[in-house]
Each structure stands twice: as C-alpha cells, then as structure tokens.
Structure prediction request, 188 residues.
Amino acid sequence: METFVQGWGLTIASCGIIGLVFVAAWLHVQRELTWVRTLTDHLGIEIVADEPGTTKTPGSLGVQTIRDESHAILTSQDPAWALKQVRSWQMRAQRLEAALAFWTDLLRQLGLLGTVLGLGLSMAYTGSDVAKLLGPLALAIWTTVVGLAGSIFLSAMFSMKLAAWVDACEKNIEAWEARRQARRGAAA
Prediction:
C-alpha cells in the first residue's frame, strides 16, 4: 500500500477518477443540450408552420418524442396539465446552465481535494528518502492540473453555445405557449 500511495499509483488513480467525472459531465451536458436544441428547433418550426414554404423534416426519436408531447399539450382538455407540461420544458432548459456550473465546480473541487490529500501525505512522511516525499507532491500537482484543465475544457466547450440555446429555447417556448393560448381562446 505504501508504494501505491508514495509512488504514481494514487496519482494515476486520482487523475483517472477526475477523468471519469469529466466524461460523465460531458455526456450529461451534451445530452441535455441536444434536447434543448431539438425542442428549440421543433417549437420554432411549429411557430412558423403556417408560413408558406415551411416544411417539417422527419427527425430522430427525440424529435418525435417532443412532437408527441407538443401534440398532447395542444389537444389537451385540461389547461392545468398543459401548463404544467410547458413549465416542465422551461424548467429543464433552465436547469442546463446550473448543471454545467455544477460539473465545472465539481472538477475543480476534485482537483483541489487531490492537492490537499497530496500535501497532507507528503507532510505525514517522516522518512529521509526524498523520492518518497515527491510521490505525494506529484498527486497534489497532477490532480490540480487535471481537475482545472477538465473544468476549463468543459466550460469552453459548452458555456457560450449553452447560454445561446437556452435563451432561444425559452423564447420559443414563450412564443409557442402564447400562440397556443391565443388559439385556445379563439376556439372557446
């Protein structure tokens, strides 16, 4: 166990864990951003569906799911349920920015945890071998680098386009909901 902690084993394992968290974060944010894009595009097409020359493209399973949800909302006889469904779209879109903030912060904190752990292990070493002292310091440095790099990379990949797509999605939801309410009022 001492060779694992004093050598590169703990450093590699800690950096591997931070790498797995980065992959999980990337997959989660990418999946949610894809959903927001799909919803934005579908509602945008629905808003201008009556315009001449507008065509609906057949889509993926995600597009079909959103189309079915919007159709259920449009044909619902229960206005409270329909409003609840629209609000759930809005809340899911708004949670995306908080999810990105959570993942970037978690990556930074994991790097900092490795730093503190590495410094603590190096301070706890009482021997005279300098090489054994440097192992925990490598843990401190490399976990900081990997955590911070993952955080910066995740933020750089998603921050700007995420904010733009979430704003566009919220505007399309508001416009689609206003149009639905107007049609419902005209039908009544």
Summary: The mean pLDDT is 89. Residues 2-48+60-187 form one domain. Residues 57 and 141 are 51 Å apart (CA to CA). The first helix runs from residue 2 to 6.
